[in-house]
Design a protein that fits this description.
The structure is a single chain. This protein has one domain: dinb family like domain (Four Helix Bundle (Hemerythrin (Met), subunit A)), CATH 1.20.120. It is about 60% helix and about 5% strand. It has 6 helices and 2 strands, in the order H-H-H-H-E-E-H-H. Helix 1 runs parallel beside helix 5, helix 3 runs parallel beside helix 4 and helix 3 runs antiparallel to helix 5.
């Protein structure tokens, strides 16, 4: 299971970086408030879930917390670096650890770490799909970032250039 989760997270970072390249290359996308808000949410969720796994109660960032899209881009890269570091320290046995957390509605839940990690990968995929739709509506190219694309390309590392 740990190998699968590592693949999902490597794909997640690659796909996020591909979206960021498309967004930063488009004036229309750079200026779109809805796209920025969703990016802050997507990467904010990555930060919040990682914090929950580490026993931290982090607040959820808001779009206005980021003065510019470049701030959000740097936040995204930092979130992925933190996720990579966390995953590098995990062992298979860690995945069954019970994680107790409180959601944004104040409800407390306990679930195994592996379920929460898979959830986060799917959550990011969902919002990348929304972003792709928005990019197309703005007349901007939306990169193909399906898991199968990443696999066909030989599991490339994320390119944040």
């Amino acid at each position: 299971m740990l190998d699968l989760i590592r693949d999902l997270y490597a794909h997640q970072e690659w796909a996020d970086a591909e979206h960021w390249k498309a967004i930063l290359a488009s004036d229309a996308a750079r200026a779109d408030a809805d796209l920025k808000a969703r990016l802050v949410h997507l990467h904010g969720a990555q930060q919040v879930w990682l914090g929950r796994w580490q026993g931290l109660g982090l607040g959820f960032p808001k779009a206005e917390d980021h003065a510019s899209l470049e701030d959000t881009f740097h936040f995204a890269r930092a979130c992925h670096a933190a996720l990579r570091a966390y995953l590098s320290l995990r062992e298979e046995a860690d995945l069954s650890e019970a994680i107790t957390y409180t959601n944004l509605a104040g409800e407390t839940f306990t679930q195994p770490l592996y379920e929460l990690m898979v959830h986060l990968a799917f959550h990011s995929q969902y919002h990348r799909g929304q972003n792709a739709t928005r990019l197309r509506a703005l007349g901007t190219h939306a990169p193909g970032t399906d898991l199968v694309n990443w696999q066909r390309e030989g599991h490339p590392k994320a390119d944040w250039a």
